[in-house]
Task: inverse folding
């Protein structure tokens, strides 16, 4: 049998170029920061309280925290020796010599300052209590891979991602737009349960990444959840996260509302894509083949969010 030659590596961008910054920002991951804002804004629309400017502000906060976290990850992992030549994922900007570490740290700080500034404005027009989870989200973005005991190195990354790129991002987006108005309790329930769905999908992306990188992470002392519980259990947990995303998005509809609001079941159309990603994981593929799974689950979250948002927009149009 003839061995298939490996695909040639994609050439790296020039040091300091826009391409180098894009590599550090990881644009393919930004769906995690934008999808929950899209869904949260659609829930606010269904409640009759959609505020475009506030929705844009929530988007800026979510994406800025995501990019800032990615920058910290790039610089901090390099400093800890986690980005070796054996890395299976996309090359890192600092480890590849494309950007100086201090410049990436500075850019990360700029992102968090931007998120904090916009967050203060959002709190001023809704509730100052919003500053507490918002501030924790920024600190967690830094502590994800930086500091004496980074969350990702302790196997706590899933909790951070679920909370701040799922539940808080979705419910917070709803809250800043409906604050000061009378809201049907069902809207609040949707904000929480659908926020959990978005959180589960964000964790799925992280978990595929961690399963792929487990061998090199273990050598670097990066004890992610996949390293801590082992490959088989991590794959079972990932399947549970996928199931959880679908359960929580329909939870408020059961058992009666599913008949009267069927368009909110639109996310179920993404089940074939979820099953396709899971089949690869279930047969035990590892290493670079999981990069394709990562692309599938990122697409899954994007399409899931679009269909969920479309369902709530239809609901808002019909109500009015």
Result:
């Amino acid at each position: 049998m003839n061995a298939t030659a490996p695909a040639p590596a994609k050439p790296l961008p020039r040091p300091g170029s826009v391409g180098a910054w894009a590599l550090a920002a990881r644009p393919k991951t930004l769906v995690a920061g934008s999808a929950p804002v899209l869904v949260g804004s659609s829930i606010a629309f269904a409640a009759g309280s959609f505020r475009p400017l506030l929705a844009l502000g929530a988007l800026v906060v979510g994406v800025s925290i995501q990019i800032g976290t990615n920058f910290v990850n790039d610089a901090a992992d390099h400093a800890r020796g986690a980005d070796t030549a054996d890395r299976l994922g996309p090359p890192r900007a600092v480890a590849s010599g494309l950007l100086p570490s201090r410049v990436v740290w500075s850019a990360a700080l700029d992102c968090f300052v931007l998120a904090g500034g916009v967050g203060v404005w959002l709190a001023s027009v809704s509730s100052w209590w919003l500053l507490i989870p918002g501030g924790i989200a920024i600190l967690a973005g830094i502590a994800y891979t930086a500091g004496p005991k980074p969350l990702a190195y302790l196997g706590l990354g899933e909790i951070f991602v679920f909370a701040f790129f799922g539940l808080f991002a979705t419910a917070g987006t709803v809250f800043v737009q409906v604050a000061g108005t009378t809201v049907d309790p069902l809207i609040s329930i949707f904000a929480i349960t659908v926020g959990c769905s978005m959180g589960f999908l964000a964790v799925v992306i992280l978990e595929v990444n961690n399963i792929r990188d487990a061998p090199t992470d273990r050598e670097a002392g990066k004890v992610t959840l996949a390293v801590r519980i082992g490959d088989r259990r991590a794959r079972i947990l990932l399947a549970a996260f996928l199931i959880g995303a679908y359960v929580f998005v329909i939870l408020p509809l059961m058992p009666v509302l599913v008949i009267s609001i069927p368009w909110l079941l639109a996310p179920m159309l993404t089940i074939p894509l979820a099953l396709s990603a899971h089949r690869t994981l279930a047969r035990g593929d590892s290493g670079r083949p999981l990069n394709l799974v990562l692309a599938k689950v990122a697409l899954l979250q994007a399409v899931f969010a679009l269909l969920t948002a479309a369902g709530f927009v239809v609901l808002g149009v019909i109500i009015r």
Notes: Residues 185-220 form the longest helix (36 residues). Residues 1-8 have pLDDT under 50 and may be disordered. The chain has twelve helices and no strands. The CA atoms of residues 250 and 257 lie 10 Å apart.
